[in-house]
């Protein structure tokens, strides 16, 4: 007797299994082709959208160029260096800042106590000069002093403002009189160090 392999099962079931395997194989092949193609399209669509967005922004910037050039010319005509402290040594810039503060305080009705030693810090093309100021003034004089510093040329900036009253809580000033306060703050200005 010869040995023949025995196929167990129904022939219709075997055909269904073969068709199912064929369909799964076709689906895997289609997925292996379609998914990378879809991902490539998505990648290039995103890249194109980003590049069109950049191009649109660059066009808007290019269209704004004549207006910006006109504004730059107008600003050059205003002499922007007048908004900075004197260039040169840090001591020269600090002296200008101190003299400006002294004049502003005295003309506004305050009384200058001290001005601390100026400190300077270079920040690229600019030098920041800071002076610590202590004074006494009533509320009206303090408002004038701060407004004068804010509108001063060269520009000065107030930092670390501390205001302390010098009278007890039960003090009642006479009509039209205001008590003086102790005021301490830092004033900073900038000087151009390079051309």
Account of the protein in words:
The protein has 195 residues and is α+β, with helices and mostly antiparallel strands. It has 2 domains: 13-78; 83-192, 2-Layer Sandwich (Alpha-Beta Plaits). Helices cover 50% and strands 23% of the residues. It contains 3 helices and 5 strands, in the order H-H-E-E-E-H-E-E. It has helices at 11-77, 90-107, 139-150; strands at residues 111-115, 119-123, 126-137, 156-165, 181-192. Strands 1, 2, 3, 4 and 5 form a 5-stranded antiparallel beta sheet that branches. A hairpin with a 2-residue loop joins strand 2 and strand 3. Helix 2 (90-107) packs across helix 3 (139-150). The protein is elongated and about 115 Å long. The model has no long low-confidence stretch (mean pLDDT 84).
């Amino acid at each position: 007797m010869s040995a023949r392999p025995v196929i167990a099962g129904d022939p219709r079931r075997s055909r269904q299994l073969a068709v199912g395997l064929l369909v799964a194989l076709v689906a895997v092949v289609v997925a292996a082709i379609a998914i990378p193609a879809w991902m490539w399209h998505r990648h290039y669509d995103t890249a194109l959208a980003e590049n069109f967005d950049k191009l649109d922004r660059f066009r808007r910037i290019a269209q704004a160029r004549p207006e910006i050039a006109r504004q730059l010319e107008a600003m050059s005509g205003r002499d922007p260096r007048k908004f900075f402290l004197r260039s040169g040594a840090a001591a020269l810039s600090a002296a200008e800042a101190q003299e400006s503060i002294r004049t502003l305080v005295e003309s506004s009705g305050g009384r200058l106590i001290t001005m601390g030693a100026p400190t300077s810090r270079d920040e690229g093309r600019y030098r920041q000069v800071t002076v610590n100021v202590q004074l006494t003034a009533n509320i009206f004089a303090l408002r004038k002093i701060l407004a004068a510093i804010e509108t001063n040329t060269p520009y000065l900036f107030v930092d670390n403002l501390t205001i302390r009253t010098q009278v007890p809580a039960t003090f009642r000033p006479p009509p039209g009189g205001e008590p003086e306060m102790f005021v301490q703050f830092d004033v900073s200005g900038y000087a151009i160090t390079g051309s």
